[in-house]
Task: inverse folding
């Protein structure tokens, strides 16, 4: 990723310098503004935005993303089932059923909290 970062950084610096030269007309002024932008971290922020967009585009249809969507569906179903069951069992004062569903809900929440990659 370091090599890719350096390539994107050089490209971003070159584009920024060309844009500054087109606006200011002087290479010396463009260089000084570019150095100021580097020292403020604006170039690094732009590089990070480009690399993040690139990474998101790659990971969008990956097997990992599909697995996360499937797990999210299971989490939603389990959450809906347990919370509805807990509400009904509390209303009926079926405390054993309430405890069992609460433990199941805790297990579901724990699994999905700690299994995130």
Result:
């Amino acid at each position: 990723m370091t090599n890719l970062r350096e390539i994107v950084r050089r490209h971003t610096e070159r584009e920024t310098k060309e844009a500054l030269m087109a606006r200011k007309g002087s290479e010396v002024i463009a260089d000084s503004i570019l150095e100021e932008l580097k020292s403020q971290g604006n170039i690094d922020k732009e590089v990070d935005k480009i690399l993040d967009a690139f990474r998101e585009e790659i990971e969008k249809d990956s097997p990992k993303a599909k697995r996360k969507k499937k797990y999210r569906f299971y989490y939603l179903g389990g959450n809906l089932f347990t919370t509805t069951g807990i509400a009904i069992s509390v209303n009926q004062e079926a405390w054993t059923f309430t405890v069992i569903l609460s433990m199941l809900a805790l297990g579901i929440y724990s699994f999905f909290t700690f299994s995130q990659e």
User: Anything to note?
Assistant: Residues 2-59 form one domain.
